[in-house]
Design a protein that fits this description.
single chain; mainly alpha
Length: 193
């Protein structure tokens, strides 16, 4: 039940904030601006597991969930500073949809599928990285895994955004997927080296 409620809240708010960002970011530098926008998520995803692990080690699960609740409350308060315009009527809004078109936007499915596949590798690491670090006797080194990851993401996002604005989306997507695959492969064979 708790996860159900959390899922509704996180899913709705994450969707809304990306939509707001897409509306207010400058279109002529959209890739770069979106890269800066995503730095918040980048930093959170990068250092969150590190902070969570430290909190769990010192305060247990209660400390982790208390910290998560405090961060959520701060996020709610920060909404005061976001200027959100009222939705405008969109041409074609009155068109009728049938069947699954009422629920799904078919044009978003390929991009959504791509995002799911590329995220799956990283998320799988999040679920077991502490156990893996103990197994390969690299607990101290793995503490730095997410810190270094965050630093590189903070540096690479704006640069990738500028390249995307100049050269298009595909060069960034292909390069990024290749780099991610190499990184995950290196983690997989780390214990063999």
């Amino acid at each position: 039940m708790v996860r159900f409620i959390h899922g509704i809240g996180f899913g709705a708010s994450a969707n809304a904030i990306v939509t707001i960002a897409s509306e207010i970011l400058p279109k002529n530098r959209f890739g770069e601006a979106f890269g800066y926008f995503m730095l918040g998520t980048t930093i959170a995803v990068g250092i969150g597991p590190y902070i969570g692990g430290a909190l769990y080690d010192s305060l247990g699960s209660f400390g982790c969930f208390t910290a998560a609740s405090v961060f959520s409350a701060l996020a709610l308060i920060s909404m005061i500073f976001i200027k959100v315009s009222q939705p405008e009527d969109v041409v074609g809004d009155n068109q009728s949809f049938s069947g699954l078109e009422k629920i799904f936007e078919y044009g978003a499915i390929p991009v959504s599928f791509f995002t799911a596949l590329t995220s799956l590798g990283y998320v799988s690491i999040l679920s077991f990285y502490r156990l893996y670090a103990v197994e390969v006797n690299l607990t101290a080194a793995f503490s730095w895994f997410f810190i270094i990851y965050s630093i590189v993401l903070v540096i690479s996002r704006p640069i990738a955004g500028k390249i995307q604005d100049r050269n298009g989306d595909m060069i960034i997507c292909v390069t990024g997927i290749i780099a991610q695959a190499i990184g995950l492969f290196l983690i997989a064979i780390l214990h063999l080296i």
